[in-house]
Design goal:
Blueprint (H helix, E strand, L loop, with lengths): L6 H9 L5 E2 L3 E2 H4 L3 E5 L4 E5 L6 E6 L10 E6 L3 H11 L5 E6 L4 H5 L10 H14 L4 E8 L6 H9 L5 E8 L11 H9 L4 E4 L5 H14 L6 H12 L2 E3 L2 H5 L3 H12 L5 H8 L12 H15 L5 H10 L17 H7 L2 H8 L9 H4 L3 H15 L28 H5 L5 H7 L3 H12 L12 H10 L6
Parallel strand pairs: 1-6, 2-6, 6-7, 7-8, 8-9, 9-10, 10-11
Antiparallel strand pairs: 3-4, 4-5
Helix pairs in contact: 1-13, 1-22, 3-5, 8-11, 8-12, 13-20, 20-21
The chain binds flavin mononucleotide (FMN).
Length: about 475
């Protein structure tokens, strides 16, 4: 994801249970100019822009080594020759290259890239074929949207899979759908029936419950299937389906761990009845979500280490992750979250609001979902009026919500309130009370040392340690 999917966020996602992460889309003509350098302190492969001398792209050479197959480089292109030129630059540091054929933004489509490619399938096929032929050691994949005439997506899918791509991600919206339009999950079964390559479902995946609904829809679509061979094949495909959350993963990357556990628990057999029963897994046994503030703190540490100071995407990404009301963590006093905190900071409330379609989802993730604090306040008022306690109260027609102020500034003593005016990474770290950590880290780095965090020597080890932590992150 542009601005979000840089190395630090990918590390947080991997540490939170993601099997694989995509980098932000990079444009072929820019990639083709990059110079590859090895950064022995950070243990990264850096791709440097020759004009600005800035590091445009960074891959961790251990955590994201090609042999681990956990990183996909995503490219925007409209031309097979440029795509091949660009792929040559990064081919030894990645295991997969994905072509973005879904971006509806003006910048992409006006250059014939992104969703424009869906309307020029010959060109798209020539790009994918050129990459498949020139880079047999890489998995070439693509990410598409549904076509505006939804059924015509099937012939397009058939053409694309015949190019030799190793997987196709389908964002189950059309380019004209709004981000708030419900993803057309009814089309998953249509695509799956013709698929001969792995399919990755994208659009409205906000947690294990979304995965459950997609799988339920698929199993229901099989109920009237009389052909045993088709049923067997479809069950097999359903069990091998992959899922790509985007906004849900920004809201709380630990949904990956829950989804993985859910898939492991629910995928068992080739029998529809049994599979359907298995969808209702014993949910309390799923690993709990990590409070997103803890993951944001891990992100800010990794960002301070891996990004250059003041890198704009860091504040953008934190703004998406941290709820505006999350209070600053007491200076120098490590603080355990209370049960109330957990309710307030976990993305679960926000994501369930998103699933039910409430809230506009056009702004930052935290601003666009229902605010659980407001919900609690609202309940408190109702309690006072009715004299009931929350457990026995039934609200048949809740009063219309008060119009939200256009821009609600975060109070100064919240993480957001401190972070937004921050002008340096140190100040951003200070919003998380991590300024001392930042100073130690800079000192260690100046001495050519790896990431220092209580004896942790390298970012790879930090990520490994984080991935082993349970409910609480740091
Ligand atoms: C901040 C942000 C950046 C994104 N950047 C990319 C990108 O670089 N490449 C891409 O294919 N899609 C990108 N997308 C689109 C998502 O990958 C995804 O297709 C879309 O958000 C629908 O999934 P969701 O409903 O789970 O959010 C981006 C989305 C967001 C919110």
């Amino acid at each position: 994801m542009v601005r979000v999917g840089t190395l630090p966020f990918r590390m947080v996602a991997l540490a939170s249970g993601a099997d694989c992460c995509y980098g932000p889309e990079e444009i072929d003509r820019k990639v083709a100019t990059w110079t590859r350098t090895l950064n022995s302190t950070l243990k990264t492969v850096d791709f440097v822009n020759p004009k600005s001398s800035a590091v445009d792209f960074r891959i961790h050479s251990i955590v994201e080594a090609p042999s681990k197959r956990n990183f996909v480089f995503q490219m925007g292109t409209s031309d097979p020759e440029w795509a091949v030129k660009a792929a040559r630059v990064i081919q030894h540091d990645v295991s997969a290259i994905d072509i973005n054929c879904g971006c509806p933004k003006h910048f992409s489509v006006s250059g014939g890239m992104g969703a424009a490619l869906l309307e020029d399938p010959d060109r798209l096929v020539s790009i994918l074929t050129a990459l498949v032929q020139n880079f047999p050691h890489l998995a070439i994949t693509c990410k598409i949207r549904l076509l505006p005439n939804i059924p015509s997506s099937i012939p397009l899918f058939l053409r694309l899979q015949s190019t030799g791509v190793r997987a196709i991600t389908v964002h189950f919206r059309t380019r004209y759908d709004r981000p708030s339009t419900k993803a057309h999950w009814d089309m998953v079964s249509e695509i799956l029936r013709v698929a001969r390559v792995p399919v990755i479902v994208n659009g409205d995946i906000y947690g294990w419950e979304s995965v459950q609904t997609v799988k339920r829809t698929l199993l229901e679509s099989l109920r009237d299937e009389r052909d045993d061979a088709v049923r067997k094949e479809m069950l097999d495909k359903i069990n091998r389906l992959s899922f790509m959350p985007a906004r849900g993963a920004i809201s709380n990357p630990s949904i990956f761990r829950q989804i993985r556990a859910y898939l492991d628990a629910s995928t068992r057999s080739r029998d529809i009845e049994f599979e359907t029963a298995m969808l209702d897994v014993d949910t309390p046994r799923l690993p709990p979500l990590t409070p997103v503030v803890d993951l944001a703190r891990l992100y800010v540490r990794l960002a301070a280490y891996f990004e250059h100071p003041g890198h704009p995407p860091v504040k953008y990404t934190l703004g998406q992750m941290v709820p505006p009301h999350a209070p600053r963590i007491g200076k120098g006093k490590p603080r355990s979250p209370s049960a109330g905190d957990k309710e307030n900071y976990d993305s679960s409330d926000r994501t369930s609001a998103a699933r039910s379609g409430s809230g506009s989802r056009l702004g930052p993730a935290w601003a666009s979902f229902d605010n659980p604090v407001q919900v609690q306040e609202h309940e408190g008022v109702l309690r006072e009026i009715s004299g009931n306690d929350a457990a026995t109260m039934t609200v048949t027609s809740p009063p219309p919500p008060a119009p939200a102020p256009a821009t609600k500034a975060a109070p100064k003593e919240t993480i957001c309130g401190l972070m937004y005016p921050a002008k340096s990474m140190r100040e951003v770290c200070a919003a998380f009370d991590d300024d001392e950590w930042y100073d130690r880290m800079v000192e260690g780095r100046q001495q050519g040392q790896g990431l220092h965090d209580g004896g942790i020597e390298s970012a790879g080890e930090l990520v490994e340690r984080i991935s082993q932590l349970g409910e609480r992150g740091l």
